[in-house]
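Lesson 9: reading folded outputs for more than one chain in a single document. The general rule is that every protein is listed as its sequence immediately followed by its structure tokens, and records are never interleaved. Here is the first one.
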Amino acid sequence: MPYSVSFAEEGFVLVVVSSPCTRDDHYSAMNQAVTLTERHVCSSLLVDLRELSTEAFSTTGCFTFGKKLAETTTHLKIAHVLPSDAKSSQDVRFTSTVEANRGKTTGEFSTVEEARQWLLYK
């Protein structure tokens, strides 16, 4: 499986995505994360995308996923840890912007620690 979803002791759900990861994998991870936030009654999600490659993703696909993520996670604050390569990082920033334009509280970070701090103290 190219992703893992778990509940962190600090009180947020952690999703770690790696490559290769298909569109269906992203939707599956999103659904599992939402279920876990509901089960643990938490409102924060940290998505570690450092290993993600979006070579096979289109701009339209990123837009659609960002829109769906905003609709599905209305109650969540989401911290995205950006991928290391430039194109994938740009795609994640675009997806995050789509989410923000739909009222989501999102942030993009270079490290997991920065994302964790933002979720815990903002």
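And here is the second record, again sequence then tokens.
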Amino acid sequence: MWHGLRATTVDRMASGKHGRLVLPVILSATFMVSFDYMVVNVATPSLQRDLRAGPVALELVIAGYAFTYASGMVTGGRLGDLFGHRRLFLFGMAAFTAASLLCGLAQSPDQLVAARLLQGLTGAAMVPQVLALITSAFPAEERPRAMAWYGVVLGGGGIAGQVGGGLLLQADLFGLGWRTIFLVNVPVGAAAIVLAARSLPGARSGRRPRLDPAGAAGISGALALALVPLAMGREQGWPAWTWTSLAASVPVMAATLLWERRLARTGGEPLLDLGLFRVRSFDLGLAINVAFLASFSSMNVVLTMLLQGGLRLTPLEAGLEFGPMALLTMIASLFGRPLVARFGARVLVCGTVVTALGVLALAAQLHVLGGDVTAAGLLAPLGLVGLGGGLTLPSVIGAVMSGIRPAQAGAASGVLSTAQQFSGATGVAVLGAVFFAALGAHPGRAAFASAAETAIWADFGLTLVTVVLALLFLRPAAPAAGPAPAAPAREPLLDKRV
């Protein structure tokens, strides 16, 4: 039944006059969420001046968005499986656009914080539908191209937030100042809604959906207990409540997983499909995503602090520093697709190795030059990181989703997106703490370079983990129990079509 439904969906996408718009429309959600995650960083001085936002409000404007986004991701993916990915995408895009408008119209720090929390939550409704739509709607031969573009958008959205935010603030359109970084989402979101309504295929299940409120509350609560202290602990000096909250997240998550397991055994529909973790490609790919995003996110933050604090670059200049890296990420994502088709998991290994070499080159340059390091000198190592990331991310995301049944696509996408967001926040918190511990109380240019070196060496350790995990993809999966086939195939775990 599903295969016939899927074929009909694909035929509509291929033959409809709006079919060519499907991929750009769904990837607009990935771009908007990534853009809005980073764009606020360059606007903090304006928010302090115009809204009189204090340190706690600024932390919540940045970290609150990340928290509600990550904590709602699994639920958003599950709702997509239950009610339809097209419907949830349209709802999420409309709600995200409305929340962006509220951010742009905020008249006080409290209003902006509330709107940012809503913006993150609505992003969690639409983003899990992106990978789910790619997985369930695109045929196998078209999926690698879609995943390549997904890697381009995911890698470029955050960088565009830094650069675009600086440009918008500098242009000061209509005298709106910082408000433009949010209001720009309104026309983009409106256009995406119109095009999505006309082009996205819909496929509804005949069964009546059932929700799992206890699972949703447990998973969101456990993530909240971990993410809030990770996001706010460093600025507040890691008071006792942060450690208590982190410790409490473990039993809350454990109890939730026990509930989900019991619900599955009694014929219910758990929010978190634990069967996903019995797919070896999903487990390995998820682990690589966690290590890679923790490394990549923390490296960007550490280098941003070095560029602006140590080298005294403006936010726009610091954002432009990452431009060549973003460009190489896009190029590698697109042109790496035929390499994946030909060489399979070896491209993933190559990507992780190139990324590790780039991070190693950054650490070595900081060690040799110290305070004499220049922004121009960092471009080559950053280019290597971008090249490696462009080969790694689409390959590993394709691998994660390759062994997932279409009916599980939303849940798998939600788990993957949550893991990416959580690992990014954890990497930033941990390596940020390492950076500031090494920086000291009276930092100068040399101190910034030394602190960045310490953090980048720790980051290099994370990249080595991704290399080791990627090598495991070269090993064939264990054969299923039963009579041995006449001519067993020894294909790598990563399907070359992905």
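What the second record shows: The radius of gyration is 22 Å.
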